Fold this protein.
Amino acid sequence: MTNAYKIAILEGDAIGPEIMAQAIRVLDLLATHHDVAFELIKAPFGAGAYFDNGKAFPDETKTVCDNADAILKGPVGLSHEESKKIPVEEQAERGAILPLRARYNTFANFRPIFLSKEMAHFSPLKPEVIRDGIDILLIRELVGGLYFGSKKRGINEAGLRYVHETLEYDEEQIRQVLVVAFDQARLRKKILHNIHKSNVLMSSVFWNEILDEVHQDYQDVEVIHLLVDAAATALCLNPGQFDVMVMENMFGDILSDQGGGILGSLGLMPSACIGPEKSYYEPAHGSAPDIAGKNIANPYSMIGSVAMMLEMSFAMKNEADAVWQAMRMVFESGYSTSDLSADSDKITLLSTVEFGDHVIGHLEELLT
Ligand code: NAD
């Protein structure tokens, strides 16, 4: 019997539709080679959705997402100047991304920071630092903390304008993401780096208390504690020490972009946002308005998000592995996209669509 999956496709803004088009080609190809059918339903989401519908996350999109087996989301948002044309509450993060995360309680955000040995030259780090490549799984709590706490602005008693934002977690929110992180550590090298700021923040002290409790059930996993500021340095100086890292929402937002930096581009950062019933998949980066419409965006992050969806939502591990391999084969054959350093004259630059062409070519070989 053919497995049939409904996927909500939220193309997003700026480079979103360009990189999503390449991801859709991959899904279409898989459906022609395997006993699987994908029903792709496009729906508006982000800044474009606001301009067309007055809502960044319109009701019709909510219905499409509610009825889908998984959601594939392109990056959303506009440049700082363009964003100011949208009311603050409807700007992409507050109006679309955070409500999407809250709606499906996608509490565990998997952000692989991966560079194969053959792709190691893309990293700005020295070869003796990179050695055999980078392979880190950063797990970010995604529905709590400062981004979701209550917010207030006003005038205080001294007559000064002020802002108040709260960082809130309950024990269950922390426990659920730590369980996911320990499970992943157990499947990998059995080392978990816990990233926090317990020397300053009460929320980190509390986080670590819950971690000690969860650790009781994972005695085979070694926990290494690292303050978030030190972790930022360590990611640059010795990324090879990390395997699975876990942290709260804002720390993960910032450190995972640094992860893109040590790979050589945010265009190499896919991600999976996992909820108890529904998950969504998106590049970890933004909509890159500076390069939109130029056919130069790197679609690796979007196609990698498809691979994560295949494995994590549809249990199609072999197909996911083939997608990863096809993308690595493009780079290993001497090609690159323009975001990645290519100072060697042996490297040929590919456009967004050409990268897609090469991935499709390799995937066809791998699937037959
Ligand atoms: P960004 O991630 O869009 O871009 C940062 C830099 O990385 C830019 O130089 C960009 O060209 C480059 N880059 C990113 N993805 C690339 C790719 N696939 N290929 C090649 N180069 C790539 O960050 P920003 O400029 O700060 O944000 C732009 C917009 O995106 C803002 O509106 C922001 O709010 C939004 N944003 C959305 C998400 C999301 O949808 N999950 C995440 C972060 C930022």
